[in-house]
């Protein structure tokens, strides 16, 4: 069974006329038309022609529109996509061009309906400026199955206006939904902080994780004509139910690492002390005295509490 796939729309720009020049021409035509009707009081076919010119001039006024920097307007002619205007300024185009509009779906929220209504009154101008989506905290499982909390911030912008309007139902709602889905998938691909060998982890390899998140978002949002400029994790933590257990594990790992450093340093210092004593012929030590000195030095260097020396007034053998 074959499934029908909708065709992918591609944006192409369209040239429009300078609005000030056309406005000046229309004012001149209207002035001449009123002069013929009021001052010269024309009659017959010429009067009909004057009224036709007046009606056409009024219709032509609908063709004026203005665009700010990083704004675009999509134009349709009887349902067919004719092009996109990206040049800022005051313009005039065919007054029968309609604006590409996204209809509100039955499941649209009240805020979305208001946004659509504002788009109709604003002649459906599409902002090309960079926008920021700050996602909420999501509770997901990492690669090891540990529950974690994760959130990300995404900087995006509309790159292809035709795809944004015609290939998805609502591109502004499409971005957060796909962003959440991509973030959930990304979190399940990497462990939180227990990588094997050179394995990438969410906590230790933030730059690599950010690049992977941006690549997946770009792949998902490309069909909506959206470009992802940046994607970064803003929150990363274990879920509350295992946070205390993981904290104790991290504390234990830190204690073990610190002990290893202390022992390595103590062994190096004992070795240096014995070599210095032998090189300078300070004292001659047999194996038993050497073992006793090593034991005492290790206790002094590795002990966490203050060490109190004991003065031996006898000998080691009595």
How would you describe this protein?
By secondary structure, the chain is of the alpha+beta class. The chain has 3 domains: 17-101 and 116-121, no CATH class; 130-238, Tetrahydropterin Synthase, Chain A (2-Layer Sandwich), CATH 3.30.479.30; 243-302. Helices cover 46% and strands 19% of the residues. Helix 1 packs antiparallel against helix 2 (45-60), helix 5 (171-189) packs across helix 6 (206-221) and helix 7 (240-279) packs antiparallel against helix 8. The longest helix has 40 residues, at 240-279.
Task: Write the topology of this structure.
Layout: E1 17-18, H1 19-39, H2 45-60, E2 64-67, E3 71-77, E4 80-85, E5 89-92, E6 98-99, H3 110-121, E7 125-127, E8 131-134, E9 138-141, E10 147-158, H4 161-166, H5 171-189, H6 206-221, E11 226-238, H7 240-279, H8 287-302
Antiparallel strand pairs: 1-5, 2-5, 3-4, 3-6, 3-7, 8-10, 9-10, 10-11
Helix pairs in contact: 1-2, 5-6, 7-8
Q: Give the H and E element order.
A: EHHEEEEEHEEEEHHHEHH
User: What is the count of distinct domains?
Assistant: 3
Look at the structure and give the CATH class of the largest domain: Alpha Beta
The shape is rod-shaped
Q: If helices are DSSP runs of H or I spanning 4 or more residues, what is the number of helices?
A: 8
Unreliably modeled segments: 102-123
Number of E-state strands:
11
| CATH architecture group name of the largest domain | 2-Layer Sandwich
- Counting helices, strands and paired strands, the structural category is alpha+beta
CATH topology of the largest domain: Tetrahydropterin Synthase, Chain A
Q: What's the N-to-C terminus distance?
A: 98 Å
Mean pLDDT: 80
Q: Could you name the CATH homologous superfamily of the largest domain?
A: Band 7 domain
């Amino acid at each position: 069974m074959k499934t029908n796939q909708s065709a992918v729309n591609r944006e192409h720009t369209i040239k429009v006329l300078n609005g000030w020049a056309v406005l000046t021409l229309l004012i001149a035509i209207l002035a001449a038309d009123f002069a013929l009707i009021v001052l010269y009081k024309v009659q017959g076919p010429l009067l009909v022609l004057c009224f036709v010119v007046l009606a056409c001039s009024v219709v032509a006024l609908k063709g004026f529109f203005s665009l700010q920097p990083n704004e675009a307007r999509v134009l349709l002619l009887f349902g067919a996509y004719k092009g996109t205007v990206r040049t800022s300024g005051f313009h005039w185009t065919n007054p029968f061009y309609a604006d590409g509009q996204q209809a509100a779906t039955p499941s649209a929220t009240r805020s979305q309906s208001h946004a659509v209504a504002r788009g109709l009154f604003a002649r459906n101008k599409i902002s090309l400026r960079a926008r920021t989506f700050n996602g909420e905290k999501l509770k997901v499982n990492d690669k090891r199955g540990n529950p974690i909390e994760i959130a990300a911030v995404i900087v995006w912008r509309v790159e292809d206006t035709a795809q944004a309007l015609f290939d998805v139902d609502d591109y502004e709602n499409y971005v957060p939904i796909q962003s959440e889905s991509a973030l959930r998938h990304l979190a399940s691909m990497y462990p939180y902080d227990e990588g094997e060998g050179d394995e990438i982890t969410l906590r230790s390899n933030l730059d690599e994780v950010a690049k992977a998140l941006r690549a997946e978002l770009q792949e998902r949002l490309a069909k909506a004509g959206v470009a992802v400029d940046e994607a970064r994790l803003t929150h990363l933590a274990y879920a509350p139910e295992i946070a205390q257990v993981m904290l104790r594990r991290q504390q234990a790992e830190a204690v073990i690492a610190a002990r290893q450093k202390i022992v390595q340093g103590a062994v190096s210092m004992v070795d240096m002390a014995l070599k210095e004593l032998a090189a300078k012929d300070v004292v001659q030590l047999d194996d038993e005295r050497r073992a006793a000195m090593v034991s005492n030095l290790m206790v002094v260097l590795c002990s966490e509490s203050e060490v109190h020396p004991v003065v031996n007034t006898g000998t080691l053998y009595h």
